[in-house]
Each structure stands twice: as C-alpha cells, then as structure tokens.
C-alpha cells in the first residue's frame, strides 16, 4: 500500500476545544503515524498554513455563525474547490454533511474516493433546535438520502449514528469508533487539592465538560443539581466549557441559589483531566451526541458518567455508567444510582470500559473506510495510548 494524501474538510470546529477538534487532531496524528499525508482544511478568522503534529493544517477565512459562540464555516466554494485542485488528494474526508455536501460531487468528477463522517444525528440536532419529531425525521431523511448518494461511503462512529442511514436503506455505511488518549487521561490525575477547591468532603462533586449551546442541553445539568439539592444531597457542579448559553445559565444558577462554578474554556488539558478525575460523577446531557468524547475522557480518568438516554452514549459507557431521560429528575436518579455503588468498583468499571476505545483502533477503522493501509513493510504503527 502506497502513502496517500488524505485531505480532510471540516466546519463547525470550536475555536479552542471540543470533541470534533479532538477527533480531527487524533485521527490526523494516527494517519501520519501510519505513513500517510493528512491535510486538514478548516475555517478561521484569517488564512493560514502550518505543519502540526496532525499534519498540514490550512485555514481559510470563514464567517462566524451568529449565536454559536465561535463556529465558522467554509462558504467560498470557488476558493475551496481551487484548493482541492491544488492539493490533488488521493482521498477526501468531509466532516459536515450540510454546507460541504457539494464536495462529494467534486470528488466524483475528480475521481477521488470521498467519505462523509457523521459526527451527529441530523434528526437529533433538528429536534434540539425546536423542530417536531416528524418534521425532524422527514428533513433528516431527505438530507441523508442526498448524503449517501453523494459520497462513496458514510462513516458512523456508533450503531446509534448508523440507524438514521439504515432507515433510508443506505448501503454504503461503515462503522468506525472514535477513541480516547489512555496515556493522557488516567486515574492518577485525581487531585485532592483540586477537588477541595470546589467541594467539601461531604459534598458530591459533579462535573460537566461541554460546549454551552442549545444542542448540548447544558441546562439539564443545573436541573439535576437542583433536584439533588431538594432531596437533601449535598452536591456542587463545576462546568468546564463556554458557549452562547453561558450568561443565561449563570443567571439561572444565581437566581436559584445553585452551587455552580463556571470555569469557561479550560485550555490546560492536564488541568481538565485532573478535574474529570477528581469528580464523583460527570454529566453528559447532550441528546444528539453520536459518540461523546468528553464522557469517554472522564471514564478514562475512572469517573463514571450519567448521559442522555436519547444519545449514543449508552453504547459507549455500557454498564460502567448510567443513562437518563432528558430532564433533571431523571439525571438526579441516575447520579444517586451510581453513587450507591462502592467507589472503587464504579471507578474501576469506568476505566475498564474506556480501555475498549483507544485511538489506534479508531485510526485503523477510519483508514479501512478509506481503503488505506499502512504503507511500507518496515513502518511500525503507534502502540495503543501512545501519541
């Protein structure tokens, strides 16, 4: 197998953090380690071109999407098409089935094998934005039919994400899980001093690492904290993340007298890992998640997760965590259920489950979707957990 230039296009990448940014970085690193040439093209405030640990990263100017807290999109089709012609990819990987779907037609004309990566369920996102279930489903089906017809393959990270394509009879869907850096996220990050900064010994420390936007439903975490407080459980919530809903959530916490600390974006990844490792339970209330990297990172730190039962996370966390209906009372029930388990047992189960999702497995699955192997018989691939 020869080395391939794999050009990746992505929109809606958070400016400084987020699951998509993490996935793009780790997959790019894996492609490089396997001997391929990854090139990532994303929108930004200004043009840029640099070499990074994940390969070449090209930034094209893209407008801000109002109300999203920093998301940008690649809107200049002519400029993107010209760049693709210049890059002459052997494979194309697209992480946006809406505004970038036209690139599938470009790839067909250029005789380039192209895959679309489904990072979210279309009907799930539409429902979080207020559309009815029937309208969301019909709109998603129409969108997914066009996506499946346009690309050689559609990559889904879970069976949950795959269902909406199976529903329309798509036959070109492949499964490729995402992963977690098991070396950077581990139980040893637990920091008693950090925990004491936010919670007393007799208090339950809840943590939510999430973008504070509509589709993530962060308000459910505040509702859960309020429900636990009404029941007499001493609990506090620390929120790591930023987004358009932050001011509203802060106002709500003050108005209701809830013990919530908003940290905003936490740039220090080691600090974020220590926060996840020091928590008693992490909350993942997003109902449209098709994988949930932040939740998996918490589990790698040996912290169990309560996730939305409407999301794919039941597949990811398994019996090591708990799922709940999309309201505060159900999340509070699930938190108490997890806390009834002896702490060593629940933490061991969380770490063991995370160990099923290393990035090496993810990279191999994505390369298989590209019909790409490891070029050169003498080249060795990275061992699990090494970055």
Note down, in words, how this protein is organized.
With 387 residues, the protein is of the alpha/beta class. It has 2 domains: 5-179 and 358-369, 3-Layer(aba) Sandwich (Rossmann fold), CATH 3.40.50.2000; 187-354, Glycogen Phosphorylase B (Rossmann fold). 40% of the residues lie in helices and 19% in strands. An 8-stranded mixed sheet has the order 3-4-2-1-5-6-7-8, with helices on both faces. The chain has a 6-stranded parallel sheet with strand order 11-10-9-12-13-14, with helices on both faces. Helix 1 packs across helix 15 (359-369). The radius of gyration is 21 Å and the shape is globular. The two termini are 23 Å apart.
DSSP strand content: 15-25%
What count of structural domains?
2
Helix-strand category: alpha/beta
Q: Rg from C-alpha positions?
A: 21 Å
Span between N and C termini? 23 Å
- The amount of helix comes to 40-55%
Number of helices: 15
- Average pLDDT number: 91
**CATH architecture designation of the largest domain:** 3-Layer(aba) Sandwich
CATH topology of the largest domain: Rossmann fold
> Strand order, biggest sheet?
3-4-2-1-5-6-7-8
Biggest beta sheet attributes: 8 strands, mixed
- Class of the largest domain in CATH? Alpha Beta
Going by CATH, what is the homologous superfamily of the largest domain? Glycogen Phosphorylase B
Approximate shape: globular
* SSE ordering: EHEEEHEHEHHEHEHEHEHEHEHEHEHHH
**Poorly predicted tracts of residues:** 377-387
Strand runs, count: 14
